């Protein structure tokens, strides 16, 4: 499957997703505008990144599109830009309404220029509007005007939306459980990511620029047919590894330093998210190895705990317990581990959560807790497992031997009916195997 084919979701898959959305909408209407075109400088456009919610329900990837989905009538109405030869000369071909009908199979399709006239009537059919405020771009004035008009008439007729609701109230739960088509794309993204990491690891050495590793990894993603990195590739050497979202990648790799690489390919708009930490010279120093193996032990234990019926909080607690026990054993922390966790003392060194949802977004939507209860894992969910320890220079209670060490190890895991599948298992994480990747 090439990259363009990966963006074509089977019509039956989209129809099934919309049917679930219609049921959840009941008498509501959902309005999903395309993502806004972004500019790097003046009129220099950035590569377009389609809106994930619009894509999930309709397969639409073209700028300027608006989907209107009615729960009460189970209809998908699409507005797209008209054909415009002058504009297409600069920015590429547009589908136009006729081709959009063939490509996306809406129940009705109209030019975007008719949105302002048609939208008030469409909204009169609903009791609430599912729309994310501030995300409408150029069509937002039309949406606000339609809301004002339906509100004015609704007070007389008793019709029209009485509230605006975030679409995530419907879509977040649906997107948490991946269908077979989604899993195929995620697994392709994972395969590309693993190869990219191996290419990057093979170039790590003292005196090499972080940017060189970044360039090699991103090139590998594109050469494999992916859309490039799903997020800013992190190549943090030395103390840079202690910055959780370090993306400058502009330092030289030093001798006997660690290199934290957090990189994931995007394929068909779906993402992988993988982190490994490498010794620059091919061998961990003893302090580095002690911290590395502690983090890897926590990673393995958290993964082994994943299964249907387990809460996402329990996965985090499993990793945290092992990290804190280890920090006490290394005399980084002193006291009873349970009390240290309760007081948050570990957060000096482990400030983030162990997992996040993964899919169309690298940090995919979905609640981790609701009404005071942690989300329970179900088959079809995809999560990361990424414990880490960071000893920032000047941080209180950091032993001199560990100062400047930053280590994170991250895998992507599918929850299955039997337990779990580690999608990234073919990328080594055991310390001796990681060393061999550098020596290669």
Description:
The protein has 440 residues and is α+β, with helices and mostly antiparallel strands. 38% of the residues lie in helices and 16% in strands. The strands form seven sheets. A six-stranded mixed beta sheet has the order 6-5-4-1-7-8, sandwiched between helices. The chain has a three-stranded antiparallel beta sheet with strand order 9-10-13. Strand 2 and strand 3 (44-45) form a beta hairpin. The two termini are 30 Å apart.
Question: Helical percent range?
Answer: 25-40%
Query: Structural class given helices, strands, pairing?
Result: alpha+beta
**Order of strands, widest sheet:** 6-5-4-1-7-8
Mean pLDDT over the residues: 94
Count of helical stretches: 14
Global Rg: 24 Å
- Count of extended strands: 20
Largest sheet: 6 strands, mixed
Described by the principal axes of the CA atoms, the overall outline is globular
Distance between the termini: 30 Å
Low-confidence regions: none
Share of β-strand residues: 15-25%
Topology:
Layout: H1 3-6, H2 11-25, E1 29-33, E2 39-41, E3 44-45, H3 52-58, E4 66-70, E5 75-80, H4 85-91, H5 96-104, E6 108-111, H6 115-123, E7 129-130, H7 140-157, E8 164-165, H8 168-176, H9 180-202, H10 210-223, E9 234-237, E10 258-263, E11 266-267, E12 270-271, E13 274-279, H11 286-305, H12 312-329, H13 337-342, E14 369-370, E15 373-374, E16 382-385, E17 388-390, E18 406-408, E19 411-415, E20 420-422, H14 431-439
